[in-house]
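Hi support team,

I'm filing this because I wasn't sure whether my run with PCP finished correctly. The job status page said complete, but I'd like someone to confirm that the output block is well-formed before I use it downstream. Pasting the exact inputs I used:
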Amino acid sequence: MFHTASPEDILAGKTTDIYFKRTVEILRKKGIARNVKAEFCVKKFPGGLKWGVFSGVEECVELLRPLPVRVDAMREGTVFGVNEPVMIIEGEYSNFALYETPLLGLICQSSGVATRAARCKKAAGDRLVVSFGARRMHPSISPMIERNAYVGGCDGVAVVKSADLIGIEPTGTIPHALVLVLGDVVSAMDAFDEVIDSSVKRIALVDTLEDEKAESLKVAEALGEKLYGVRLDTPPSRRGDLYQIAEETRWELNLRGYHHVKIFVSGGIDEHEIERLNPVVDGYGVGTAISNAPVLDFAMDIVEIEGKLRAKRGKSSGAKSVLRCPSCYKKMVVPRGTTVGRCSCGSDFEDLLQPLVADGDMLCTLPTPAAIREYVLQQMRFYSLAE
Ligand code: PCP
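And here is everything the job wrote out:
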């Protein structure tokens, strides 16, 4: 029905590039079996970024677990840098060669989305950031997109299925359509208040027919204390400077005692716009910037064959460890198994690459989306948007 691969297709290796299928055919035909170690790294981040959030591990486990391989990986949500291996697969090459394409697809897109979400949440601080971007992507991947937006740092997601997958309530306001169909924003919010469970925050969209200030005051007068906030999604043709529109709206609301009414904005929002608008905005609906975030260009490269150091040009050979000090986040990449002394701050380094699966057995308990999100937010204390 839809032009997408089914889980069965992916597990069967049907989403592989043909040259991997032919490589396996050649190796099998010629009876060549080589035990290799292959690692996954990013050589360069998009847009000059210096760090990324590693995501997509849970789905990789679905692909790797049935295979006769051993996998070590960074915990999902780990912030990593260029040339730091996030995952190492060890096994007979032809047993997992078919899965390079889907494995890369899983982590390249997931990590791209999680990284942009982390940057938006870092920019917003305690202000709300909600993923509004499923409509920009094929619906079959909405849950994946929004799960990574959430683990990357978003406080909420808009799509019903995504919220189910994450185990949270979906977040939303009202669409322009409700205001148009019911005639005006007050009628729309009155109907919302009448029909929708009172546990759902009442946030009115205030740019459909009149000026944002005017619609905000009308709906504040109508709902009073029940109005949680207003959303400004001002069309580009009328947008001018959203900062000033939000500032004016704030002034008029406060002047009339509606200090409790929060101001949300959406439409063309990214981490830079968030940093600019923070003084006058309480929350953000971020769509395209997160859901269509640039992928992180991971590559899988063989670094050892039959225990011998072997890698292509441009790639350092040998399996590696990524050591990080849990206190000051100092990091170093060393040959795997190298022992180093204590960090200069006194703490012992930890190897970020931990056992994940081996020959069908899970070697760790996978964290929940909420736990991954918490881990990302913790690490964000050590990273800035500028770097
Ligand atoms: C869009 C909708 C999305 C916003 C914009 C995402 O507005 O509200 O949440 O925008 P972005 O991709 O630029 O970040 P409309 O489609 O105008 O509004 P609605 O469906 O809410 O009526």
